[in-house]
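User: Fold this; tokens only.

Assistant: Input:
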Amino acid sequence: MSPPAHIAAHGESTALAVDPATLARHFDGGEGLLPLWIAEPYVGLAPDISAALEARAGLGWYGYETRPPNGLDAFWTWMTVRHEWDGSGVQTSVSPSVGTSIGVLVELLTNPGDGVILQPPVFTDFKPLVSSAGRAVVRNPLVLTGDGYRMDLDDLANKAADPVNRMLILCNPHNPVGRVWTNEELAAVAGICAQHDVFILADEIHADLTLPPSRFIPFASAGAESGVSWAATHGPIKTFGLAGVCDTLLVADDARITKQFRSRSSQLHLTRNNVFGLAAFEAAYRTGGPWLDGLLDLVATNVRLLADGLPDGIELIVPEGTYLAWLDFRRLHMDVPELARWLATSAHLALSPGHWFGREGAGFARMTIAVPGEQIEDAVGRLSRAVSEGL
């Protein structure tokens, strides 16, 4: 199955272009691996972004450049059109990465020894960002039900009620399980955290990658009536495959928090601009809509390929958002090391082992599916052969 024409026509897929040393480091013992573990699209870059980068390179000078307002204007126009969020009443700050935003806010808004609530299985970088700052990781695990993953709101209320727990990092859409939280779920979280004065940092970097009929709800909208204090991360890095080029954004509705964040960023010189990043950022939000629509069509097609093709014993947790498939291998009855070896040496797949995302991920693995359909068919074939050949 080929990707949509305007996706396929703009460059070769990069899914196989992974440094062998990197594969060997993460997946020791596997040969001929199909690498599908990095969370980014493995298709050609949007042509207007490529053109903007080429044009900027052609200017021939690459010194200091002041960030123009055009990029942020393009971002808010994009958010207004695609997500009905116009940014009224909030401040938008530039940050080198989501991790930078989290690390700085953990430092500014909590004290050593305080608790930061996470909802595992969840993005691998959250835990080390918290623990390396001398804060305690407090687990509010997601619950897998017959209708998919849900938040344990009773447990969250208990954790939030402990005055030592000062922050919740909320992932929406959720990496790796693919939930797109509803307005009702987000409002419930906002109410709990407002009641107990727990700050919410919403990682919304996958906001644009929502699969119909699900719809991304900005936490800013869902939590507006609660009075909870919050900030949210955004940017083009996941949407357009620009993690190696572009900065991200931190959006907040509290001018005091914005001032603190900008002051700390300035102190650490986190505010330097990359001339190529500026060009790619604006081009993505000005002209990237049709390319993204094609990517979402491709992801939806690949979800169906997985759902229809996986062998008995492996189940797809159908994603509502992101381009990440969360695969359930528990019926194969392998422990964590055994499953990791089997995926690499029998199925010849480089996937993110579920335990990387917390103990709740044991028995699962994450697969990137923003790739040409042929690679999903290849992955399904590898899994089917490995299952049929025995464990």
